[in-house]
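seq:
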Amino acid sequence: MPIHSTAKKLVSKAAWYAYNMYRKGISYRSQLSKTAALLSASRADILAFQNEQLEKLLRHAYLTTPYYRELFKTESIHISQIPPLEKKDIREQLEHFCSEAVPREQRIRNATGGSTGTPLTFYQDRNYWNQRNLSVYCFDRWAGWDFGESQLIIWGALSDVEGNADWKHQLNNFWRNHYWLNGFHLTDATMQTAFQQMDRCYPRTILAYPSSLYQFATYLSENGLSPKWNLKGIITSAEMLHSHYRSLAETVFRTKVYNRYGGREVGLIAMECEAGHMHINCRDLYLEIDSPDPYTIPGDILITQLNNYAMPFIRYRIGDIGRLSDEVCPCGNQLPILAELLGRSTATFRTRTGTLIHAGYFTQQFYNVLGVDQFQLIQESLKHCILKVVINTQWTGATRRYMVQKIQEVLGTDVSVTVKFEKEIPLPTSGKREFTISNLPCG
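struct:
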């Protein structure tokens, strides 16, 4: 590693320490140690801590928030008796969800990116962010990240990148030892510049949108550019990590991809370990699957965030579908496992028999189909789908028949498929590529 990179790492590590001392107080290192210890504790200790935090949160919600006070009717309530929290409830009664015990000036306003429609506005507090960050630090170490080491970030949330030219943003990147590649505007020129800069700066990890990582990896592969950065790992988040995304990235960068699952509303939900299993963050949240048997039948994921006392999220239907596992992970960690993460409920198709078909099926079937540059499949009803395609000179009638056949194989042979030819399938405002969209009512 060049001398200037080593010096910058030392400066960044000291800056991280000062930042966390400022945000979390002089007990920062003690807090971090306790967080790491809990996340690697026995299952019994983990669940005991989680249950204690859950009881505190439910009591706080009843005593200090108008919405939950009216909903619970009593201070003693079991979480299973509480109906799931829907996004429309928050939109309609935002102020009623805010705790009267947290002054307005201590609320931190946040919002989702709107990948499934209208952005959702909500509030958090400083303690939520402190606790969230402690957990992220510990989980990201699974992928080889550590304070001060250089990291390439390929990201696309507007609220995160719109200040790229601002001096404060540049200063933050410097002391954090971050190098930013805007995932919203990936061009050959920007990717070439990033590759050349990383050849000088030697990133140890990458944090990226899966689709942006894939685009960058594709560019490097097609142009014969071989990174020699000695990466410890790659962390992906905010989108579905499709199998072909993972495969290409691990081939090009010669390291493992660790998938991280979370949301702006509730923080980090689960993180993939070395053995490839998604471990649930029981320190910060309580996760349920809305299903008659969460271990065999996938269902909507419900999240209770345990640290946001400014605006409690209790049994929040986050919009994703998943399934639990009761197996013991060979990595040795005893945090419960999220066996399947099937993506957004609005990207998961349903058949007339009630079977769920998630986006991964279609991306695997249509990835690298000759003649197709882009595709998007929209389920308009149980009997009709629209297939949008951007084609090239290799498109044939056989290609069309193959794609329609693969759709009908899982949705039903009587489902009609309208093929529409497009010049381009633009990204939504969230910047997240949507391969499948279901317009069916939820449920």
